Every structure is written in structure tokens, then in C-alpha cells.
Amino acid sequence: MFNFLSRSADAATLAAGMVGVKMGDRIVQIGCAHGGRLGAIAAGVGLSGRAVAIVPDEASAARVNKGAAQAGVLVEIETAPPTRLPADADAFDVAIVDDTGGLFATMRAEDRVATVREVLRILRPGGRVMVIAATARGGAGALLTRALAVLMTDLPARSGPRFDPGPSLQADGFRSVRTLAERDGLLFVEAIKPR
């Protein structure tokens, strides 16, 4: 029998490994389509680090609370639009943009530019941004992924063309933009804020 919880835990572990935070890091996640992923990533900063989630609505805040509680970590929550992040300049080492629910991909172009510039502002020089996006899967994997998305979240399963965040990051000031991996229906794109 297929174990849905095991599959969800594997995706969270994959995300935590790909983001690669370390003890003492100050991280911020913009958006939260999956609390378990956020909890797994936040666990990496330990007691000497700081984890903040900036989410657009109360439903996302509830996912953050649930994921943090399940992982046994403390995550500060701010509710604000991604175009105006309530954080100081140069405040974070790593920013994660959770686009698995379409937060970034479905924005109007001018809002996407504002969001990327805000992420650039709140990262320290040399800091990293990681965009985690959903990708279309084919065959039986696609059917299972859509079923999982419906069962595990209150978000609709995404389909259609993949959105590549790389050009947006490059155009608005990030450097060394690269796709790290595409695996298990997730795309990981990383970029660096210039020093």
C-alpha cells in the first residue's frame, strides 16, 4: 500500500537538503504551501539561528504553525504581501520562495519584480535565495502527484506549463542563477545576492 505520509516526509527531507541551511543561519521563507517542508528546513538553523515565515494570508500562517509544531521548531510568522516584506535590509542569510502553490508564478509581472527586489533587499550581501517550484510530471507520477496535492493541502494541484523563476531573479539583480535540481515534482532554483 502507498504511504502518503512517508511520501510527504521524503519531499520535506529533499527540500531541506536542497536548501542546505546550517546552524546559526537566519532564514526567511516567503509563502507556505506545505508546512512540513518549512519545518524540515527551519530545523536546520538550530537554537542559534532564526527562522521567519512571511505569508500572504491566515491559511498559510496555519500551515506554518502546523509544520513548525510537527518539526518541533520555532518559526516567527509575519502576514504581509510578498511585494512589501516586513524585514530590515540585509537581515537574512537565506531566503526561500515557496512557489509550489503558484504564489510567484501567478503574480502580475510588476508584482513579481517588486517581490524579487524585496527579497534582494532583505538578504545580506552574498546571501542566497532558493525558489522551490512545482513541476509537471508525466504518467502515473502525475496522477499520484495531483492526488497527493489534493489530499495533503487545501491547494489545487497545478498543471500546465512550468514557470522558470531564473530570468526574473537574473533581471532584478541576483547573480549566479542556476537550477540545482528537478526531482519528485519539485524544481529548485538558486541565486546569490552580489556582495
Give structural notes.
The protein has 195 residues and is α/β, with parallel strands linked by helices. The protein has one domain (4-192): 3-Layer(aba) Sandwich (Rossmann fold). 37% of the residues lie in helices and 26% in strands. The protein contains 6 helices and 7 strands; from the N terminus they run αβαβαββαβααββ. The protein has a 7-stranded mixed sheet. α1 (4-19) crosses α2 and α2 (35-42) crosses α3 (58-71). The longest helix is centred in the first third of the chain and has 16 residues, at 4-19. The model is unreliable at 1-6 and 151-161 (pLDDT under 50).
Provide tags for this entry.
195 residues, 6 helices
Kindly provide the radius of gyration, computed on alpha-carbon positions and rounded to a whole number of angstroms.
16 Å
In terms of quaternary structure, the protein is single chain
User: Briefly, what CATH class?
Assistant: Alpha Beta
Mean pLDDT: 86
CATH architecture: 3-Layer(aba) Sandwich
Topology:
Elements: H1 4-19, E1 26-30, H2 35-42, E2 50-55, H3 58-71, E3 76-79, E4 92-99, H4 109-122, E5 123-134, H5 139-152, H6 166-171, E6 175-183, E7 186-192
Parallel strand pairs: 1-2, 1-4, 2-3, 4-5
Antiparallel strand pairs: 5-7, 6-7
Helix pairs in contact: 1-2, 2-3
